[in-house]
Every structure is written in C-alpha cells, then in structure tokens.
Amino acid sequence: MKPGKEWRRRSWPGSHEDWGYGRHGDWSPNWRRKRGALFLRFAAVFGFMVLLFFGGLAAAAFLLTRLFGGGGPVALLVWILGCGLALALPLLAIALATRAFRGIATPLAGVMAAADAVAEGDLSTRVPESGPGEFRQLARSFNRMAEELERDERRRRNLTADVAHELRTPLHIIQGNLEGMLDDVYEPSSQHIEATLEETRLLARLVDDLQTLSLAEAGQLELHREPVNVAELLNDVRTSFSGQAEAVGVALEVVVDGGQEAMIVWADYGRLDQVLGNLMANALRYTPPDGVITMRAKSQSGGVQITVSDTGEGIPPEDLPYIFDRFWRGDRSRPHTGGSSGLGLAIAQQLVQAHDGRIGVSSEPGQGTTFTIELPADIRNY
Q: Is the Cβ–Cβ distance between 326 and 336 less than 8 Å?
C-alpha cells in the first residue's frame, strides 16, 4: 500500500466502529455518502412496507370487531392497539434495519466507493473483508481484481520502459553510423555497413520476440500440433548448435532415458525447437570453454521431462525468481550479448505453458544451471 494511504477508523451514529478507506481523505466522503444513501433507501422501503401491513391489520381488526358484535369501546381499544403496533413496529423495523445495515450496506457501500476509486485510476484501493460471508467473498474478489490490475499496470509500465531502453542502443548505433557516413567521418565501408545491418537485425529480432510474447500471454498464439519425438528434437537442436558450441569450446551431449515410443508428445515442433534454442543460447552464453551442456529426456507419468543443464557460472539464489521476466538480468550494468533480445526465457516459459506444460530452473553459483521442462504425452494415446 502506498504511503499516505491507510485504513481509518470512522464512527457512525448508533453503531460500533466502522471502517472507511482514506487516501488523503479522497473518497471517504464518497464512502459515507453512499453508505447513508443505502441506509435511507433500505430503512424507508422496509419501514413503509411494515407501516402499510400493520396499519391495514389494525383497520381489519377494527372492522372485524364491529362485524362480530364488538361494542364501541372494545372496537376502539382494538383500533388503538392496532395503531400503536402500527407506529411501534416501524420503529422496531428501523432499529433492525440499522443493525442489518452494519453487516450489509456498509461493506456494499465500501465496495461501491472502492470501485469508483479504481475507475478513476487509483489501483491501490482495497476494501476490508468484513460483513456476512458473501460480502467477505465479494471483498476478497474485489481485492484480488485490484491487485491483478495494479500488477498488470506495473508490468505495462515496466515493459514500456524496458522496450525503450532496449531500442535505444541499436537505434543510436544505426543513427551514429549513418550520420558518420553522411558527414564523411568515415567511409561507407562494408564493415560499417555490416555493423549497421546487424543492428537492424537485432531490432527485427526484438520486434518478432515481442510479438510472440504478447500473443502467447494473450492465449492467441497459434500452435500447429503434431506427434513430436522428443529424442529426435534434442538431436536436431544439438546439430543446430554444434557449430557455435565448437567455436567456444563447449561440448554438447544428448541423453535419452527410455524407449523412443515413450518420447512422443502432442506439440508444435517449431515452438518446442524455439524453446530449446532459447535455453541453449542462454547456456552457451554463460558456459566457459571446456564446459558441457547436456540435454536429457526421460519419460514420466503422463508425459516427458526435458532438462537442459550447463556447467556455467550459475545463478545467485536471489535472482532465480526473476529470470523469466522480460528483459531481466542479474547484472544490470551488463548488456545483452550474442544478439539476445532479453526475451528468450520469458518466451520459453510462455511457449511451454501454451503446451500445458511447466518449466522451472535450479542453480547453484559456480555449479551450473538446470532448466526443467515437463510436457504432457501425446493425448491421442489416452
């Protein structure tokens, strides 16, 4: 909760302490106004109905007394008692309405005022979980909604800032190279043109990754599912990265535990290849020469488990919860290298989840890192 925002105890005439949410007094008056309006409507309707009922009952008693031979004094007494009830019972109804108001109208007015505050942009608004069970559940649901909205808004702002940061460097390089050529600071040699072209490739890669990530998060990423042999997929990935691994002196290994028939998943081959490619690129980036990267697959109950392990520098424990975030890196002063957009692990997580799978990571500093993917088996076998 932001500074300057606090729950304040409020007194209400004729009741125990109630609670109102104040943001520098912003919507506390609005809360009290809604509360009062609800109470007046509730009490007026209830009291009017009781008055009509018992007034009619008194009139009926008077008429029946006269009809069955009751004397004038008896009829008058019955009529007076009926009128007394007709006056006393609405007062009792108002007292009961006030009591019911504490448990019903107060939390409802709080939710209404909080909804108005959220609509005006105050996403930090929360309501107390008080009142009957249904209203406590309503308050919990509202608070969860507000928390999700606040979290999404914070992510949106962070994403905007991160995208601007990631775009700034390649754009400055491209601009600097082109201006240098125009100003004859250096000749438009193939080296300078190639450097500029590489930055445009990085920008294109960043845009493609952002599009993939946004579609996956929205659940709109189209998957072309087919039977995929995981063992063959791992061997294809090793072949694709063998040249890069050999260039940096890193060994690649593939281990398959179980028969080939147990290694079939119903998935999009290209997207799984993208997931493993992102994990391999990340492992190669942080594995020193003479290191080893191992891709292992084994069957398990209801699916297949894939692990990608390296003997690199590892990840500090405090960084592990954030490595699947967009553009996140432990050392903020270290730029992304190797043409990375900084979205590889975030995309890997979203693509695995799109396959109804799970991905996790374990690491020890100086001992390497292991990413674990669990995918359901080919559903046509069940």
A: no
- Examine residue 145 and state whether it is found in any structural domain, yes or no: no
* More confident of the two residues 59 and 355: 355
3-state secondary structure of 60: helix
The secondary structure element, H or E, covering residue 8 is: strand 5-10
- Three-state SS annotation for 275-302: HHHHHHHHHHHHCCCCCEEEEEEEEECC
Owning domain of residue 170: 157-217
Residue 326 is assigned to a structural domain of this protein: yes
Tokens representing residue 13 in the block = 């005439």
Number of domains in the chain: 3
Do 376 and 299 fall within a single domain? yes
Least Cα distance to 115 among 140, 146, 149, 144 occurs for 146
Cα angle vertex 378, ends 373, 382, to 5°?
125
Q: How many helices (H) and strands (E) does the chain have?
A: 8, 9
Q: What is the pLDDT of residues 23-40, one digit of tens each?
A: 433 445 565 666 666 666
Q: What is the pLDDT of residues 166-219, one digit of tens each?
A: 778 788 888 888 888 888 777 788 887 888 888 888 888 888 888 888 888 778
What strands lie across the sheet with 292-300, from one edge to the other? 251-257, 292-300, 303-310, 368-376, 358-364
* DSSP β-ladder status, 264-268 and 5-10: unpaired
| DSSP 8-state symbol, 336 | P
| Whether residue 242 is found in the same domain as residue 371 | yes
- Rounded CA-CA distance 185/194 in Å is 17
Residue with tokens 């398959």: 256
Please say which residue of 70, 97, 131 terminates a domain: 131
